[in-house]
Amino acid sequence: MGRHRNCPARSVTRMGIALTYCFIAVDDHEKALAFYRDAVGLEVRNDVGYEGMRWVTVAAPGQDAQIVLEPPGMDPDASPADRETIADLMAKGLMRGVVFTVDDCDATFERIRASGAEVLQEPMDQPYGVRDCAFRDPAGNLVRFNQQPNP
């Protein structure tokens, strides 16, 4: 499509941008650490308590993007009913999670399964080109592991 004739041409300046944090609700930080740190292999970057709450930040070694494991319903505008709804969704396993890229899906699967994590999908080749597997973390969040096809 061409440019609308009443709109002047604009140049787009590229800006540096990178993902820094994403947030996952967890209801038990110790169980979450056993999964994300011990089974998955992420490192703890920060562990902060404030007014009876706790936020733990984890990340893959050598990467900047971090996952904040936070108490459910931490949005300051969330009502008590909102927090209850979030807790209900977590209990049903309906919260979204994260997708990791790994070098070896099968080895990752075996390591995490050996930790006792809930398996949702054993490793399989997907029609869209990746081999992947899936687990639920202890709070019910979906966690997938993708292996890109060999070039």
UniProtKB/TrEMBL annotation:
<feature type="domain" description="VOC">
    <location>
        <begin position="18"/>
        <end position="148"/>
    </location>
</feature>
<dbReference type="InterPro" id="IPR029068">
    <property type="entry name" value="Glyas_Bleomycin-R_OHBP_Dase"/>
</dbReference>
<dbReference type="InterPro" id="IPR004360">
    <property type="entry name" value="Glyas_Fos-R_dOase_dom"/>
</dbReference>
<dbReference type="InterPro" id="IPR037523">
    <property type="entry name" value="VOC_core"/>
</dbReference>
<protein>
    <submittedName>
        <fullName>Putative enzyme related to lactoylglutathione lyase</fullName>
    </submittedName>
</protein>
<dbReference type="GO" id="GO:0016829">
    <property type="term" value="F:lyase activity"/>
</dbReference>
<dbReference type="GO" id="GO:0046491">
    <property type="term" value="P:L-methylmalonyl-CoA metabolic process"/>
</dbReference>
<keyword id="KW-0479">Metal-binding</keyword>
<dbReference type="InterPro" id="IPR051785">
    <property type="entry name" value="MMCE/EMCE_epimerase"/>
</dbReference>
<dbReference type="GO" id="GO:0046872">
    <property type="term" value="F:metal ion binding"/>
</dbReference>
<keyword id="KW-0456">Lyase</keyword>
<dbReference type="Pfam" id="PF00903">
    <property type="entry name" value="Glyoxalase"/>
</dbReference>
<dbReference type="GO" id="GO:0004493">
    <property type="term" value="F:methylmalonyl-CoA epimerase activity"/>
</dbReference>
